[in-house]
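Model the whole thing, not chain by chain.
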Amino acid sequence: MSAYHPLNETEAIEIARTMKNVFPAGAELNCREIGDGNLNLVFHISDSVSGSSIIMKQALPYAKVVGESWPLTLDRARIESEALIQEGKLAPGLVPNVYSYDPSLALTIMEDLSDHVIMRRGLIEGGRYPLFAGHISTFLAQSLFFTSDLGMNQQDKKIRLRDFINPELCKITEDLIFDHPYTDADTNSFDEAIRDEAEALWSDGALQLEVALLREKFLTHAQALLHGDLHTGSIFITPESTKVIDPEFAYFGPMGFDIGAIIANLLTSFASRIHWDADEPAREAFRAYLLSTIAEIWTQFEAKFRALWDQHGVDRLASAAPGYKDDYLRRLLQDTIGYTGCKMIRRIVGLAHVAEIDSIPDTAARERAQRLTLAIGKSLIKLNRNAQSIHQLIDTVKTTTASAKK
Amino acid sequence: MSAYHPLNETEAIEIARTMKNVFPAGAELNCREIGDGNLNLVFHISDSVSGSSIIMKQALPYAKVVGESWPLTLDRARIESEALIQEGKLAPGLVPNVYSYDPSLALTIMEDLSDHVIMRRGLIEGGRYPLFAGHISTFLAQSLFFTSDLGMNQQDKKIRLRDFINPELCKITEDLIFDHPYTDADTNSFDEAIRDEAEALWSDGALQLEVALLREKFLTHAQALLHGDLHTGSIFITPESTKVIDPEFAYFGPMGFDIGAIIANLLTSFASRIHWDADEPAREAFRAYLLSTIAEIWTQFEAKFRALWDQHGVDRLASAAPGYKDDYLRRLLQDTIGYTGCKMIRRIVGLAHVAEIDSIPDTAARERAQRLTLAIGKSLIKLNRNAQSIHQLIDTVKTTTASAKK
């Protein structure tokens, strides 16, 4: 690691110039640093002659969130590039291509996706992505099934698990999602107007029991290689294309955590529409689109996962035991619903918020969106172990939203 | 590993002679190889002048079981010595002291326990060990709690888990305990007289579902650092002393697997008394001793585990969430009961049997012991997810035994 130093734009261009298969001789390379500077440098390098372009992502040895800074391993760049390569093999076309990875600089060079938008931003702007449910359900089914004991050689999986031990990034999740929102922690951040909601979380024993059980699974249940941070800010999208990015939180954990992350961020979008759609019919139409997308994601995921199991299952007893497959998928749905709730709550009272809610300019509307997000999150967490069908999640969202209006 | 070769007795003595802190100058060293030659060489080296002695255990690069031979990693010697050292720190006095470990020879030098007997043999001979429940419950509570996310720094645990990835040894368990007994596998081995029992296992769907769920936990539930093979053949014992040996199957798995291993092997002893106690009062007295030992092990384990949690718990939410502790221990009991059943069944129809049953000379008595073991094992597996108390295990054993007599 002694060669490590944060690159400047000139150095980034020098490295890019060595990539003869992307940039021909005579390329006129331009470089812009487009990262937010909190965790990584991100260089966009393009050739004004050929039009070719790449992204160079370099991990920084620290994390900055809301002004605080703490050291963070550069090994996450290795984990991210290895996870991207693995996901690219299992779900071709649904992640950026990785051209190279240099461990000494913690530097990954990959496909430029500037023609895509970040899905969180796209949704704020009212974008609809009719292929998304199909794409993401394929990504989830392929990446989760084939890294689990159901679809991967079970001894190879143990070796792979060793490569993805990721203590520092897991700790961020363990603290910020599965602990701090449920106590008066310094890292918490919420509008003073909803202090009553935060304090209610700190004293809700039934909720805390469910969160403790979900936390336990996050800590111990090495079910499959997760993306680990699969929110709508980790997805580049167009109406035709979906690209999952930034798997630096990858580790072997409970599958429902990835599926729940997607659903949770569609539901923060759902709750945020209080402001973003001025008229109620437009709001209800967009919300209906989001709910049908959520139902589609689960339904398609389940169908694809079952088909993979039928065709590629490697565990004799898991395939032979009557009722096991149904039991497995029921538990996976329950985990998904529980993690969905956890990931909604942390976005309102925890350290890291979401733009679709935080950027609502109208104070009263923002507060209503925050309260609705919390109400849905709590209802889903309390539902989780009793759920039998994705329709119960949809019904819970609708019922909670209807109650919130009164 | 290039220096590796199986030692002969002369070489073993040469190595022992370098241990100046054990053997003084002028020691007259004698060496006997006392292993069974299936997995390891075991040299007993003693000084006829001072009376000092040691054990040198060297892993062989293959496993031999019932005439078959397959290659096996020498890395298991590292895992065994590291696990012994870890257990010795957490449960002082309950494992042999490790003097040294040489990775190039896959050689561990440790305390000689020749004044102890193997517990399986001791039980066959009718030995009673009044301190055993206290000792083993301490060993279990200390070694499991302090390597779990409840009692160990949760980031350090992930690093430690990486050190104990143990694919080859885990595969032996996955195949021989959690798969083969439930299908017509080549490795299975059973007396032809009980073929009906074996075939019943191969078609019992409700049983297979439970075993599939327990298998899944063995594959995915990285709860604590297990011994991994904690049967009565892995315990050296006297009425005053208990020493757990041979943790080469150590890995991070479900705690109930270790506790269930102990109970299962006390129950194979229970079932075997059909022969070993000629008169019924003696048999019933010994069986009552075994059942009270089992109840004591769980009861003391639970009390010690709860006390450690109260005093040394590191997980804020796990300690704060109302009902979580009770839920955790209830699930742990349920796992224990399930794994107890799995470990009984494999000893009758699987590859590796137990001496207390296989060595019953009377054919009819042996068959009755085998059928009783299977009946108890199946009942416990079917009980597991419904169990609320260790008394349900004891009652199930008694009821099943009473039915078997009819």
